[in-house]
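Question:
When you can, review this sequence-structure pair and walk me through the tokens.
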Amino acid sequence: MSTTPTQYSSLSLKEIVCLCAGARDDEAWNEFVSRVRTPIRLMVMRTAAPWGKPSRSLVEDLVQVTYLKLWEGGRSLLRDFALQCPEGILGYLKRIAANATHDYFKHDHSQSSGGDAPHVSTSDVDPEAGIEVHGSEDKIAFHLFLSEIDEHLKRCLAGPDRERDRTIFWLYFRQGMSAREIASLPGIGLGAKGVGSVIERMKHSIRDQILGTRTDFGDDQGKSEKQSSTGSRIAL
């Protein structure tokens, strides 16, 4: 029995994102790039304009950096956002492109001016970015810690806004977006203060759940070890 080939051009951007976030699908990825490359490129150029006219090769490099941040740092987050706020996908992609461009020029300016202060980028804020330098065991441990937090989120969130609130939490902690930036995304439906309140509420709830679980175990040494290995990367 023959199967009808997928007509990618007829799918919505949300459906394309979900296909890209699943098993490797080169055709879905090509369709995704064909739809979002122009708005991402324009956002890179607009964000770079205050620093001077960027070269074509630099613009393309920053577009590729944007793809890497989306795929390596939060492919599942992009999928979750697409499911929760399908009308806001392009706004989300543009914000990631703007952050990547700001990071590049701030870092470049810091280096050219001889500044000694360490550069802090949205990738540095993202606890998953940069974890490679700590070795495979540390990376695995940290991914388990992120999974633990996500399980706590699923338990503590309820009601019609649970997926929106979970998305807000990870946009803040994994993509390094500010409360104002998250609030500006279509489909969020909250102001910056409202987004900040959601983040603080979830931080307190997760902290209480984690501390309560560790208290039940009665393992002070285990608690100390886990705090030392994870607490420096994500502040709850």
User: Anything to note?
Assistant: Confidence is low (pLDDT under 50) at residues 113-135, 215-233.
